[in-house]
Amino acid sequence: MPKPADTLAKLPPRAGGRYIRNMIARLRDTLGLFTELRRGYGDIVRYRILFWEFCIVFDPELIREVVDEQRSSFEKGFIYKRNTVLHGPTIVTGDGQDHKRRRRIIQPFFHREALAGYAETMAQRAVVKREEWRHGRIIDADTEMRDLTLSISLNIFFEDGMQIDVKMARDLVALLTLDFQLALLPGRALIKRALPRYRRLLRRKGPMDEIIVASIRAARAAPAGSRTDLTAFLACAGDEQGGPAFSEDEVLDEVIEMLMASHETTGATLAWAFYFLSRNPAARERMEREVDAVLEGRPATLKDYDRLVYTRAVLDETLRLAAPAYYIGRQAVADCAIGGYAVPAGANVQLCCYFSHRDARHFPQPDRFLPERWTAPQPERPKYAYMPFGAGSRGCVGEAFARMSAVYALAAVAQRWRLEVVSERPPALNTMAGYFFRNGLPVRAHDRSRETRDG
Fold first, then answer.
1. What is the average per-residue pLDDT within 404-414?
2. Residue 452: pLDDT band by 50, 70, 90 thresholds?
3. How confident is the model at residue 287 (pLDDT cuts 50, 70, 90)?
4. pTM higher than 0.85 for the full model?
5. Residue whose C-alpha is closest to residue 116's, from 400, 427, 367, 324
6. How many H helices and E strands in the chain?
């Protein structure tokens, strides 16, 4: 029989001051709080912030129970739904049949066959970005990689010539991130109205909305098949009755959500990859040798993706050690049992993969950056011991898109540059919404061709 809900491991004492302390810890150092909880209570533990009850799950077998066996008992976490920037549910925040409908409609845009049409853009944008750097200059790899992945998404998600630039999109991402960070605070609506930065970013969103809505209307008026961008794909998608699958506001929201999801995490992953490569010169040199041999100095093409075996392994290993989405949120809609523990309806469940990614039972020498572990046959491990793109039926719909754009970016940069981390100190982290750099990642750009000539 499941244990009663009140016998779950929890943070004692359950007093008001403790709840405030948890909220402060959650805002300042979410991963630190999770580490403390796991160390003190094991694979599943409850904690409380103000009037919200949380249950965090660390064990991959228990995660499997949530996302597979008990998936009908859970929906998307409440924090994702406290967004006040968008008009309503999206593929990220929707639930039940609504989520299935959105996913079914959107998924073809990210199928492997469709990616063939995006490969050239991904590779070209990476080449354009790398040509902006100068030998010996210090750049912020975090900002540069986010700008690169944002540029890729802008070129693939919107019609050529649209007046959306990186600065405009960057402000939108900042607004959505700030909105998420404020979700836990009581009286958040008043805080948003009083916060100058929030009001300023919200005003800047207006012109971008107008541009996208105009593009939606133009796509619906254009001949079928004349555009291949995501905005047109969603605008022209039909439902079973032959009408539009999405309203204008829904297309607007889906495009904005996809823009956020497609570049923020991939950009951070690329920055982490260059961090680990800088700290592991042997791995970097092996990747450079592969890139040089496969590409022979030209931009990558679709056929090169499968040939860049070690480069893809660098990405896999980076995602193991620094998965941006190191936890995902769910909310129980019905009483259920997880690992023999009762999880009551309404409980907010967080599924954390950070520790299973570093578990020696699943990954020998877990603290070492070893891309070669991914070039060999994989040992048997629990299904969700490795889940950098989420899990179950709600796994990231754009995973293949993200992987391809990241591999092409790694290859394009490695063709010309070595990025050396400037500081010997570990980078400061911002782990509230993901595994991100708090203050960027300063690196010094070294031109490989110049080093070859000098050598």
1. 98
2. low
3. very high
4. yes
5. 400
6. 16, 12
Contact 297, 34 (CB under 8 A): no
- Beta strands 341-343 and 348-352, pairing class: unpaired
Average pLDDT over residues 369-384: 95
According to DSSP, the β-strands at 138-140 and 442-447 are: antiparallel
**Whole-number average pLDDT of the chain:** 89
* Edge-to-edge strand ranges of the sheet holding 348-352: 44-49, 52-57, 348-352, 327-332, 74-76
What does DSSP say about strands 348-352 and 52-57: parallel, antiparallel, or unpaired? Answer: parallel
Which tokens hold the place of 179?
């909105």
Per-residue pLDDT of 124-133, as tens digits, reads 999 999 999 9
In the chain, what are the domain boundaries? Answer: 5-454
Q: What element of type H or E holds 400? A: helix 399-416
Q: Report phi then psi at 442, rounded to 5.
A: -65, 130
Could you say which of 3.40.50.2300, 3.40.50.1000, 1.10.630.10, 3.40.30.10 is the CATH number of the domain covering 5-454?
1.10.630.10
